[in-house]
Amino acid sequence: MGADCQFCGTSVLLPENGAVVVNKNAPQEVFRLPVSHEDEEALIYDYQTLAELLEAMGNNSMKNNDWVHILNKESSQSFPISLGNLYERLKHPDLAAIIHKEDFTAHLQPIIEVTTNEIFGYESLLRTSSQEVNPGQLFSFAHQSGLHSMLDQKARRAAVKAKSKYIEKGKKVFINFLPSTIYVPEFCLKHTFQIVEEFNVDPADIVFEVVETEKITDVAHLKSIFDTYKASGMKVALDDVGSGYSTIEMLTLLKPDFVKVDRAYIKDCHINEKHQSFLNEVVGRANHLGIKVLAEGIEKEEEWSWLQSAGIDFGQGYYLGRPKEIPEKEAIITS
Asked: In this protein, which residues make up the domain named EAL (predicted)?
């Protein structure tokens, strides 16, 4: 289980006036501060402001994986953090604040059923309140600062909340998740299941999908996560089939309820024979396994028409509808 398990859903803020507790076996040259206290096992460095602590660290800790404890003098409570994570949080306090304060919302992009041209559900996409910070920046910072578990969990909450507020019962909501933040599925996903219960959302209306930036290195672990979601009545999706790690063979190994085809194969699929061949192969394999196929990144009428004729089950993309905080209730096919 990861070292940040106990803090993944808790806002552990760096105290403005505190101390750093360093094991004597760790490198001592990291902090350019006088030692305030010393015992048999540790050195303690006091700091008066976070700016002072950042200056004291210099540039030596950007990729340092050694761990220290941050002590809040007022509460006498402490928590562990790697020096690399500490450096990133000190360097970008504005991004850390966005995560801690949940200063973001879920925007919902419609997913259209091919045979009926009606809305089947929506994908929840995180959007920050600040236009200066895009979701990619936030997730990149979260990974570098050790806040990825917290952000992933809070993003799930925002998505479930949006589902309860804007999406009627029976319509699905697709929610991204990072397998690397889920160490022991039965334990780590309890919080997610509590959120679903809190907002009185039918578990059958929720589809959890692996995000495109995640690299699958442990198929057995991901299958365990999928099985835990399914056991709770939820659906699962494999994202971006065709892009590197996510191959057609994964369909047989993981048996998701839905598979999303990488948008690179959707672009110009009406005229690109290689894309057509790959898409036909995916549809054939998915049909054999009872998996529904969703094409994402549809931007042209011609792409949508070809996908309809190819037997794709669902479509998503700017041609079919853009992400909005208050979503469209009816499908709008751009002409």
From this structure: 88-335
